[in-house]
Amino acid sequence: MEEYNPKGYVIRISEDVLIQMCLSGLEAYSIAHKGGEYRRRGVETFGLLWGHEIKLPDEKTLYCVELLSIDTSAERKDVSCDPVDATLELKRDILTSFWPQYDFLGDFHTHPHDTKDEVINDKLYEFSKQDIKSVEGRSEFWLSHNYRVGLVLTIAKLERKSDREHRWIGTNTIELTLGNYRLWLNGYITYLDNSTKIRLSTHVDDNVILDCPAILGMVGEYTEFGRGIRKRITRRHRPGII
Length: 242
Prior knowledge:
23% of the residues lie in helices and 36% in strands.
């Protein structure tokens, strides 16, 4: 983990990760789960993010989130989801040994809510104070695992099915609609503060771009592409920043 990068950050979510987030998040939201003496629906779910870190030619930091593993050992509640530390250690050991192309990046969890209005009015699609504390308050643990990315998927039901177009509502937040559900995907990065403590990018969201081509398509360039066409036929393309 490095100190804050003033050039900016991009969190790129693969389609496979998006599908897994929607499947696990909507299951936890809609299907009653056994817990103690009764069943409950609308609970949170929790998982771990895996992928790669890349330094772009324009010096932005790119986090490619390629894999999501849901923690079946986490205790699910309607207002929290408590993971087991040993799960991360086990999964890192497995992937490092057999699929080393996936590096641990961070975690994912959901926020279930009844209505879209309460989500929008109170910005409940953002990390809660408890979410921030769970990261910044455990610097030593997360530093040992190089935690870099945090994602939260907020879910609310709609009174009727909607075909509203997906959109950004901030550089690090994407709003999408799946039938009778409205979802918000929000992303954060972490960095070192004074080389000893982890800080979340809650105060610099405009410098963090959440990119999910499966939702919004290819909306632009990460760095400058091309500088026009040369007249020479043998080599017509003029590269941008590479």
